């Protein structure tokens, strides 16, 4: 981090509201929540290190010059088969569907706004471009870059033709975003196995933009973390800092502060799990062509019943022919500037 500055997080308590219209603290809902936690804990115990290593066994191929619009990160399996991080990496990392694969787009403390490209075949990770320039998120005091490992769940899609009942807004046409809060700074393009703890719902220009809060299952605190209340217990201040970060991060670009559903309050793990399950079903409709996907590239190498399935040779050709080089943009020290935001 620049100048050895450590971001300060304000300690707070985040209330947990009703899930699907039911009081979380009623006897019946409490019993269901305890059962959910017990099942998750049991399944995590059966997830061996060998299984985790196997599921993490993807490699990345970098094409183009870093800090250029040509720079792209493609994905291959351990045996060298090209895959799409959006369509071919499984959402679920275990048979019980309690552990999830997360594709890391932006490591914690970094500023380059990297994301899975929806339009490019095989959906490489690329840096977002705005007005012809590579995009970097601003540092809004006291934060430096992204304050978690930021990425997405594969095989999910926030359907822009679906109005989410709990928010009253349509989906944002992207895979669902994930904030991994563990101690380790992940690497760009890494596939990490995580457990879901909860979610917040950003309303971005009238669209629902879920932010799933999760933790690496190999994190030392993972066994103790089962629900959104545990985030406040073991990471005091982080939930409030997360809402603040999303509220203000676009203000230095001249945009208004972002809004949230549920008054910015976090929903619990059971609610978040249902949200992810729904976006997975929307992705299934997308990849099978039952739902319209617009300009999204649905090319894949593993979804056998998809009309967009391609072979290994074609995938290799796409990766090998991806442009090299590129016009490298100078990354100036303005990227490290701290912006002091006054909220009304």
UniProtKB/TrEMBL annotation:
One Pfam family of this chain: Pyrophosphatase
GO cellular component: cytoplasm
Superkingdom as given in the UniProt entry: Eukaryota
Cross-referenced Gene3D superfamilies: Inorganic pyrophosphatase (3.90.80.10)
EC number(s) on file: 3.6.1.1
Keywords: Cytoplasm, Hydrolase, Magnesium, Metal-binding
Cofactor(s) the protein needs: Mg(2+)
Subcellular location: Cytoplasm
GO BP, sorted A to Z: phosphate-containing compound metabolic process
Listed GO MF terms: inorganic diphosphate phosphatase activity; magnesium ion binding
Recorded coiled-coil stretches: none
Protein family: Belongs to the PPase family.
Protein name: Inorganic pyrophosphatase
Organism of provenance: Musca domestica (House fly)
């Amino acid at each position: 981090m620049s100048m050895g500055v450590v971001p300060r997080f304000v300690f707070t308590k985040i209330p947990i509201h009703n899930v699907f219209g039911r009081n979380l603290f009623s006897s019946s809902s409490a019993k269901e929540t305890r059962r959910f936690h017990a099942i998750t804990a049991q399944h995590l115990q059966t997830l061996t290190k060998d299984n985790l290593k196997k599921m993490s066994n993807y490699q990345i191929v970098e094409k183009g010059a870093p800090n250029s619009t040509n720079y792209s990160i493609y994905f291959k399996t351990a045996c060298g088969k090209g895959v799409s991080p959006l369509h071919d990496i499984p959402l679920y990392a275990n048979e019980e569907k309690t552990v999830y694969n997360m594709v890391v787009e932006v490591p914690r403390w970094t500023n380059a706004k990297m994301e899975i490209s929806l339009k490019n075949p095989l959906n490489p990770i690329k840096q977002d471009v705005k007005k012809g320039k590579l995009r970097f998120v601003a540092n809004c005091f006291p934060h430096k870059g992204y304050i978690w490992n930021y990425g997405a769940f594969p095989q999910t899609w926030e359907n822009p033709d679906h109005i989410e009942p709990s928010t009253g807004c349509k989906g944002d046409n992207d895979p669902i975003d994930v904030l991994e809060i563990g101690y380790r700074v992940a690497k760009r393009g890494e596939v990490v196995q995580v457990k879901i703890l909860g979610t917040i719902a950003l309303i971005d220009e009238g669209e629902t933009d879920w932010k799933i809060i999760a933790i690496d299952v190999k994190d030392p605190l993972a066994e103790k973390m089962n629900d959104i209340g545990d985030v406040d217990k073991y990471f005091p201040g982080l939930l409030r800092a997360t809402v603040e970060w999303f509220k203000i991060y676009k203000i230095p670009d001249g945009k208004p502060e972002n809004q949230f559903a549920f008054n910015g309050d976090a929903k619990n793990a059971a609610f978040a799990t249902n949200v992810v399950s729904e976006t997975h079903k929307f992705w299934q409709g997308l990849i099978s062509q039952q739902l319209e996907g617009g300009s999204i590239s649905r090319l894949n190498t593993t979804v056998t019943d998809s009309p967009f399935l391609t072979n290994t040779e074609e995938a290799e050709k796409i990766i090998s022919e991806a442009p090299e080089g590129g016009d490298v943009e100078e990354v100036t020290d303005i990227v490290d500037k701290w912006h002091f935001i006054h909220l009304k």
